[in-house]
Design brief:
about 100 residues, mainly alpha, 2 strands, transmembrane, DUF485 domain-containing protein, membrane
């Protein structure tokens, strides 16, 4: 297995994980900060029985699912393919 290729694949995985983690944390802590300091804003009713706070809280949950889906999709299309290719090289003895 080529160590340089393995490091490149691991670096790509780390990059996308960091970006998606930062985006998730930004959404989550942004919402928490709004809860702490923007209660009157979040209490505004958008429709009967639905406040802005409820909508944003639900969006934070949905966003975390979307970001997880993006990571899984990326990992299935790119990361797993590269790891399998590198493992195949290792088994066949190529790319030491």
């Amino acid at each position: 297995m080529n160590e340089k290729d393995l490091r490149r694949v691991a670096a790509a995985r780390d990059r996308i994980a960091r970006v998606l983690t930062a985006a998730t944390m930004f959404a989550y802590f942004g919402f928490i900060l709004l809860v702490a300091w923007g209660k009157p804003l979040l209490g505004n009713l958008l429709t009967n029985g639905l406040s802005l706070g409820m909508l944003l809280g639900s969006l934070v949950i949905v966003l975390s699912w979307v970001f997880t889906g993006i990571y899984v999709s990326w990992a299935n299309r790119h990361y797993d393919v590269h790891v399998e290719r590198l493992a195949g090289k290792s088994k066949s003895g190529g790319g030491t």
